[in-house]
From TrEMBL:
<dbReference type="InterPro" id="IPR028994">
    <property type="entry name" value="Integrin_alpha_N"/>
</dbReference>
<dbReference type="Pfam" id="PF14312">
    <property type="entry name" value="FG-GAP_2"/>
</dbReference>
<dbReference type="InterPro" id="IPR011043">
    <property type="entry name" value="Gal_Oxase/kelch_b-propeller"/>
</dbReference>
<dbReference type="InterPro" id="IPR013517">
    <property type="entry name" value="FG-GAP"/>
</dbReference>
<keyword id="KW-0732">Signal</keyword>
<protein>
    <submittedName>
        <fullName>Beta-propeller repeat containing protein</fullName>
    </submittedName>
</protein>
Length: 310
């Protein structure tokens, strides 16, 4: 969502590209009503591409990931599509693929956009029997043309760490999560990496980990960034402690080129469930943290979102 525009993915939509082809719907707000403005589908979509699995929007530009797309880099190499709005009409502007893409990369698992910059991450371990050290890719727009400008990799990432599982971009900064980092003999504790752009060059600026990180926390599952502040979800934090509510999110702030942890966010309402930190968002001094499972008194599973003033 951005301003008065929201985009919703439907990865199981069969129309027009067959089962799992996917689509996305654009809604605009008019007063207190939301009205469908468009249905987005790729020009070359196919079944089980899972188009719309990941979504990012900034102004009149929308990016949609199709991590299981087979074209052109092989089976489930993945892709991402850029759509732009002119007036009330949406049209596909570009299809993005990695210059060095290969089968099973899962490119498009995560996407982010800010102005004329797009970051696309992969998640090879989710769809390939041969887990690899994943990457994230930066694309820049010149006019109507998008060109790959950089490939981001972590200095210390290993096979299976899931680098690229989540991405965010804000100005000259990008953050990439990997929820399966093995930190200090703590498998699956997770981490997130900050990259900074200087001219056309991107370099790793920092590696972020939770001060109290432990095995299996999944820190880095979700990431968000705005104005030098990052929010990072850890969806399995405290699950092993058998607490009623598992999961957390961490807030980091930048001072110059140094990042420090400022806060740890948790749910405080006593609902039983798990997955706090499944999704995160930040705008100025407000953060939103989503769950994927919360058990209500009626024993029905639902999802919730929590709003924090930072």
């Amino acid at each position: 969502m951005d301003g008065d525009t929201a985009v919703v993915g439907a990865i199981g939509d069969e129309d027009p590209n067959g089962p799992g082809g996917g689509s996305a719907y654009v809604f605009t707000r008019d007063g207190d009503r939301w009205i469908q403005q468009a249905k987005l589908v790729p020009d070359d979509g196919g079944k089980t591409d899972y188009f719309g699995f990941s979504i990012a929007i900034d102004g009149d530009t929308v990016v949609l990931g199709a991590f299981a797309d087979n074209d052109p880099n092989g089976s489930r190499a993945g892709s991402a599509y850029v759509f732009t709005r002119d007036g009330g009409k949406w049209a596909q502007q570009a299809k993005l693929v990695a210059n060095d893409g290969d089968s099973g990369d899962g490119f498009g698992w995560s996407v982010a956009v800010d102005g004329d910059t797009i970051v696309v991450g992969g998640n090879q371990i989710q769809i390939s029997p041969e887990p690899g050290a994943n990457s994230a890719y930066v694309f820049a727009r010149d006019g109507d043309t998008w060109t790959q400008r950089a490939k981001l990799t972590a200095d210390d990432s290993d096979d299976g760490d899931r680098f690229g599982e989540s991405v965010a971009v804000d100005g000259d900064l990008a953050i990439v999560g990997e929820s399966q980092t093995n930190r200090a003999n703590e498998p699956g504790s997770g981490s997130a990496y900050v990259f900074a752009r200087d001219g056309s060059r991107w370099t790793q600026q920092a590696k972020l980990t939770a001060d109290d990180g432990a095995s299996g926390d999944g820190f880095g599952w979700s990431v968000a960034m705005d104005a030098g502040t990052a929010v990072i979800g850890a969806i399995r934090d405290d699950l092993k402690m058998k607490r009623d509510v598992s999961g957390s999110a961490y807030v980091f702030a930048r001072d110059g080129g140094k990042w420090t942890q400022q806060a740890k966010l948790t749910a405080d309402d006593g609902d039983t469930g798990k997955g706090f930190g499944w999704s995160v968002a930040i705008d100025d001094n407000m953060a939103v943290v989503g769950t994927n499972q919360v058990l209500s008194e009626g024993l029905d599973w639902h999802v919730s979102a929590y709003i924090f003033d930072l």
